[in-house]
Design a protein that fits this description.
Sig_transdc_resp-reg_C-effctor, Rhopdopsin 7-helix transmembrane proteins, 2 domains, about 300 residues, mainly alpha, two-stranded antiparallel ribbon, transcription regulation, 14 helices, Arc Repressor Mutant, subunit A, LuxR family transcriptional regulator, WH-like_DNA-bd_sf, DNA-binding
Length: about 300
Amino acid sequence: MIAIFVYNILLIILYSITMTFAIYAYLKEKNNLFLWISLYLAFFIFDNTIIYMTEFLNSFAQSYDQAFMSAPAVKTIIFMGNAFFSISILAELQKEKLSPLHYALLLALAAWMITIPLMDNSAFKVWLYYLGNQLFLFYLGIYCWRGTKKDVPLLNKHYLKQLMFINLFFSILIIIEDSFVIFNVDQYSSLVTKIYNRSVSEDIFSIVICVLLLHFFIKKYQPQKEKTQNQGTSLLIQDFCQDHQFTQRETEIFILLLSHRTNQEIADQLFLSLGTVKTHVHNIFIKLDIKKRTQIIPLFEKYKEAIESTV
């Protein structure tokens, strides 16, 4: 029991740390992608907390299992939340909004999880209930594959490809585990209802997702360390941008231009389309009254020398 307790704590810590990174990214950039990721991880914490309670509180486990067999409202909310947030994340990565097909699939999943519990109690009924969620996960893998064929930033394609393999693999693995546990471990008799609510495959899936996200966030904000080593230059750049009335996004792009980043590299790092980056670069050129990007660094160096000479 101690091992399970420690495992649950470590799992919640992993979810919380990853969610903290996502919230920070959203507050800093106001990008809806990070908002959806934050909410997705919040549902990971919610789900694991419920499962944790069924493992340590017998009275809660009994009432939860009985309620699950007749009206699994809590699990349905968790599954629908995960489904909506995950497909919203993938849509953001593909630079598009949810389509009517997506909403139809979400409604079909909700209808599935509402109607299946109306069947007579049996292991097959529970297996069918979970099957809908795993089929949706399999569809997400296909949706990721379609995204790799679209005109989106290279970094987005990289993560879409990884998520494609993760979703397809774990949708099948979870079905295999469910099939074994539901028909061989759980008990669904008229006298006793005993459900093993934790899915090892789902836990591994959530851990893989968190590791992938942490890798992204750490890599994304690693340059911040270099900035803190030279705060004077950073403040000078901010002053330069304010003097030329750059917007927040133009400031971010200008900093990357100073680092000799190409338009495609800027688009990948800031999760923008190439066309949007080109528009912002054009606006920067107009405000600086220049025509070539090779003029940017000499212009900034001249500004820097002028400021330092007055100090």
